[in-house]
Amino acid sequence: MPMIDADGCLINVSVEGRDGGPTLMLSNSLGCTLQMWEPQMKALTQVFRVIRYDRRGHGKSNVPPGPYSMERFGRDVLAILDDLNIEKVHWCGLSMGGMVGQWLGANAPERLGKIVLANTSCYYAEPTKWLERIQAVKEGGIAAVADAVLAGWLTADFREREPQITANMKSMLLASPVEGYLACCEALSTLDQRALLPKIKSPTLVIAGRHDMATPISAGELIRSNIPGASMTIIDAAHISNVEQPHAFTDAVVGFLTQR
Ligand SMILES: O=C(O)CC1=CCC(=O)O1
């Protein structure tokens, strides 16, 4: 896996899949590494060359001091594409990954083909929840918030039915570097990309989770209704819908990206 330099921050990048196929870039949720896409990889790599990466502050990427921002995350993606000599990619980002997709769609439209924005938001009406989370993590580490975060990521039914997958997701969250996690929470606490949405001209699919309390259906609907021509699909899942409903998620993404 290459480490790619984005303005002095080394980003862990993985490129797999069909040589010569269209390229799809996947972008993670807060507290997740590129491993979060494992349920999709078999199907996606049959159709696409797939790029995954660990956002700065996460996984095997560097953890430079904050503040971070959606613009910073977007510029990291452009540095990855420049380094790999890739002009244009389809985008699929979940949660923070969807926020980075919004920034790129509005600010670097020539680099994106189609865009999937899953379980995401363009702003938070109540940013205090991020300030409370920051305080809790500063006092008690990520362990202090882990169970509440997991309850938002996956429905109670799924957690009961799939204890091993749930435990793996919790381990991924707990392994996040605290400084990187906090810097991302700070970026979320000031998020407001509402003005960017009408500038997005790429064909866009919004995916929302029926049981997602972190970025509810109304947040997806706000995005859909402000991006010209965007459509929306609702999946029977909580926040990390690609893990909870892997087949429905993969089918929605492949169907949208391959339709003419
Ligand atoms: O981690 C969470 O609680 C949910 C979330 C919001 C933005 C994001 O990337 O994850």
From TrEMBL:
Signal sequence region: none
GO BP term, example: beta-ketoadipate pathway
AB hydrolase-1 domain mapped to chain residues: 29-245
Pfam family for this entry, one: Abhydrolase_1
Molecular-function GO term, any one: 3-oxoadipate enol-lactonase activity
Protein name (Swiss-Prot/TrEMBL): 3-oxoadipate enol-lactonase
Organism: Bradyrhizobium centrolobii
